[in-house]
Amino acid sequence: MKLNRLKLAAAAVLVFFCTVSVSADGKPSLSGRTAENTSFAQGCSAFKAGDWHSSMILLRKAVAYPANNTADAWYMLVVSEMYAGEYKSALADADSFITSFPRSLYMPYIQYQKGRALFYCGEYEKSVLLLSDFCHQFPENEMYASALFWIAESFYAGYNYDEARALYERIVSEYPSDAKAPAAQYRIETIAQRTREEKLLYLLKKTGEEYLSAKEDYEKQLKMYDSSAVTGSIRKIAELQKQNSALEEEVASLQKQVSQLTAAAPSDSGVSNSEEIAKLKAKAREAQNLLNKKEAEGGQ
After folding, report:
1. Would the CA dihedral through 195, 196, 197, 203 be positive or negative?
2. What is the tens place of the pLDDT at every residue in 183-229?
3. Cα separation, 148 vs 123, whole angstroms
4. Distances, alpha carbon 255 to alpha carbons 205, 269, 283, in Å
5. How far apart are the C-alpha atoms of 89 and 95, rounded to whole Å?
6. What does the alpha-carbon distance between residue 37 and residue 46 come to, in Å, rounded to a whole number?
7. In Å, how far are 2, 101, 233, 239, 296 from 300, measured between CA atoms?
8. CA distance readout (Å), 218 to 206, 215, 228, 236, 300
9. d(Cα 70, Cα 97) in Å, to the nearest integer?
10. Could you tell me the pTM of the whole model?
11. What is the pLDDT of residues 101-125, one digit of tens each?
12. Which of 114, 198, 203, 229 is the right S-S partner for 94, CB 3.0 to 4.6 Å?
């Protein structure tokens, strides 16, 4: 890029001195000091000094005159607009140049600057197409590596990192001394870092999803276990209650039988009735003890 700027400055100086004539006393003076020559000369001087904003304004005024409506003036105007950040104006003026001076030696450079202007205007696909055409038409041009860089930048801006990385790597390997090589190397490292970060984020996301799934499954199993345990306890209590009810009925029946036998037996009754009553009482006590034991188990 520095080489191109030096060539541009040299061309500007040449055009500037072409507008200057020498007076009778040997001192340079603007021929005729006309308004168009004044604007053009001042624009060239500002261009040489790198005062892009002033150069843009002065050259814009100069090309309005037929005498300055030349490829040189328009070329310097487009370059000034690019360096001043006036990309939309540069794009429009590049189109005007292409229409007015289709056979100019500046045409490759105007095409290159138009591709850059499209990039800065966010027209990434158009920038890729135009700069790719530039590379195809002018493979020996000193701006070839820079054109590759801006194509890569367009891919990078569009998140097409694989395509961008391939071009950055080509610049670094094939044009290591080019001014864009350090920037291309930086982009390669940036893409590598971004790739690592994306992989890490993917792993974190996947691990997080697996953790949440495992947690949900665990909580589901825990709820099922609790529900099963509760159901089992309820079933066990119901069975105990049923057994207790049966024992209570048996005890009540035995006690009723004992009462009936006792009431029906005379005072001088035989041994057989007393033995029968004793057996019934013993059986009733046994049933009562069993009932008490079941109730105690149910309370635990």
Report:
1. positive
2. 999 999 999 998 888 778 877 777 776 667 666 766 676 666 666 66
3. 16
4. 74, 20, 9
5. 10
6. 14
7. 93, 104, 11, 14, 7
8. 18, 5, 15, 27, 29
9. 9
10. 0.60
11. 999 999 999 999 999 999 999 999 9
12. 114
Q: Is the pLDDT of residue 12 over 60?
A: no
Residue type, 236: K
- Measured in residues, the chain has a length of 300
Highest mean pLDDT among 9-23, 61-75, 283-297 belongs to 61-75
**pLDDT on residue 38:** 87
